[in-house]
Amino acid sequence: MSISQAVEAAGDGSGSEFRRGVASCAPVLLGTIPYALVLGAQATQKGLSTLELSMMTGLNFAGGSEFAAIQLWTSPPHILLIVAITFLVNSRHLLMGAALAPFLRDLPRRKAFPALFFLCDESWALGLADAKQRAAAGITPAFSPRYYMGAALAMYLTWASFTTLGALLGPMLGHVETYGFDMAFPAVFLVLMRGMWKSVAAARPWLVSLVVAALVYLFIPGAWYVAAGAVSGLLAAWLMAGDA
């Protein structure tokens, strides 16, 4: 059976569902901590205070765009450029939200809006995979808000806490990239992709997205590779629908 014994024979206990979300997110958190420290250290090297960094990670909560913003940060900062790049990098959330929308349809707004605020790559991947597993096991509703919030809040608190710690320790540690911490970033996403893996045929849109994003990254400056990868992957999935 599994999914915690089909969520304890569909009893769907609220406390156990929240704990199940936290437990599912735990391996991802171990990979998140290193690059949260890297972001915090980089921010202080760019002149941001610990308070400013904490506000950015707490209010924006999107690691990819925060790394991009830090790389573009100057004194004085080019605000419009940073806003545009942040929007571009975070545009993938439109696709992620669209994929999750059918499972959020029956939630009241007072629950749906917080769920969307805490949406990030990790909570989205875990929440969507769990909803599909519950649907396959015949559990209704397929989407478990408590499971999702367990994973999302664990991710949010870890991200905000360790980016702040990175900002505090950054001046003492120096360039933390030399320790190889930034390798944790792709490692986390490989783990998430492994959890969503179905077959080689079903993964072809991922390959198209990867190749297009890599080519755009190599030949076009800026963060256009994010949008190019997302759009090409979406088009590939549409064109290959039914082949997998």
From TrEMBL:
Quote the InterPro entries the UniProt record gives.
Brnchd-chn_aa_trnsp_permease
Do the record's keywords include Transport?
A: yes
Of the GO CC terms on this record, one is: plasma membrane
Question: Could you tell me where this protein is found in the cell?
Answer: Cell membrane
What's the domain of life for this entry?
A: Bacteria
Note the PANTHER family from the entry.
INNER MEMBRANE PROTEIN YGAZ
Protein family according to the UniProt entry:
Belongs to the AzlC family.
Q: What is this protein called?
A: Mll2427 protein
User: Which species is this UniProt entry from?
Assistant: Mesorhizobium japonicum (strain LMG 29417 / CECT 9101 / MAFF 303099)
Q: Taxonomically, what lineage is the organism? A: Bacteria, Pseudomonadati, Pseudomonadota, Alphaproteobacteria, Hyphomicrobiales
